[in-house]
């Protein structure tokens, strides 16, 4: 069984693209997020992949951790990539939890 988070726990991951572009995000379900991203033709990563035909490497940067810690870690990793010369594909300010409905 693949571990996943919930409204209290999130993990941080990065789409690492060989031409020095990256996208850092937090999610409660990495597998679902990857599937949904492919379906969203307006998504920054999807658009970039379609534009360049480059295949990103998806790296899970943290385990599922408490939301408040995940918000800080997302900013940490985003800034780390940015400060190391990566071009970031993130359009929105990091630290947002996004929309989701939990049952």
Outline the secondary-structure elements.
Elements lengths: L8 E9 L3 E7 L2 H10 L4 H9 L4 E4 L4 E2 H17 L3 E2 L15
Parallel strand pairs: 2-5
Antiparallel strand pairs: 1-2, 1-3, 1-4
Question: Would you give an account of this structure?
Answer:
The chain is of the alpha+beta class and 103 residues long. It has a single domain (9-88), classed as 3-Layer(aba) Sandwich (GIY-YIG endonuclease). The chain has helices spanning 30-39, 44-52, 67-83; strands at residues 9-17, 21-27, 57-60, 65-66, 87-88. A hairpin with a 3-residue loop joins strand 1 (9-17) and strand 2 (21-27). The protein is globular, with a radius of gyration of 13 Å.
* CATH fold description: GIY-YIG endonuclease
* Mean pLDDT value: 89
**Structure summary, number of beta strands:** 5
In the residues, how many domains can be counted?
1
Order of helices and strands: EEHHEEHE
The major pleated sheet works out as: 5 strands, mixed
Shape by Cα distribution: globular
Query: Helix coverage percent of residues?
Result: 25-40%
Q: Count every helix, treating DSSP H or I runs of 4 or more residues as helices.
A: 3
Ranges where pLDDT stays below 50 over 5 or more residues in a row are none
| Structural class by SSE content | alpha+beta
**β content, as a range?**
15-25%
Radius of gyration: 13 Å
CATH C-level: Alpha Beta
CATH architecture: 3-Layer(aba) Sandwich
CATH superfamily: GIY-YIG endonuclease
Query: What distance lies between the first and last C-alpha atoms, to the nearest angstrom?
Result: 20 Å
């Amino acid at each position: 069984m693949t571990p996943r988070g919930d409204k209290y726990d999130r993990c941080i991951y990065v789409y690492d693209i060989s031409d020095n572009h990256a996208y850092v995000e937090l999610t409660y379900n990495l597998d679902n997020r990857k599937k949904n991203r492919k379906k969203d033709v307006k998504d920054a990563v999807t658009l970039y992949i379609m534009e360049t035909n480059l295949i990103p490497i998806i790296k899970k940067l943290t385990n599922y951790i408490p939301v408040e810690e995940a918000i800080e870690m997302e900013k940490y990793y985003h800034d780390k990539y940015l400060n190391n010369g990566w071009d970031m594909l993130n359009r929105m300010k990091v630290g947002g939890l996004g929309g989701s409905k939990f049952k």
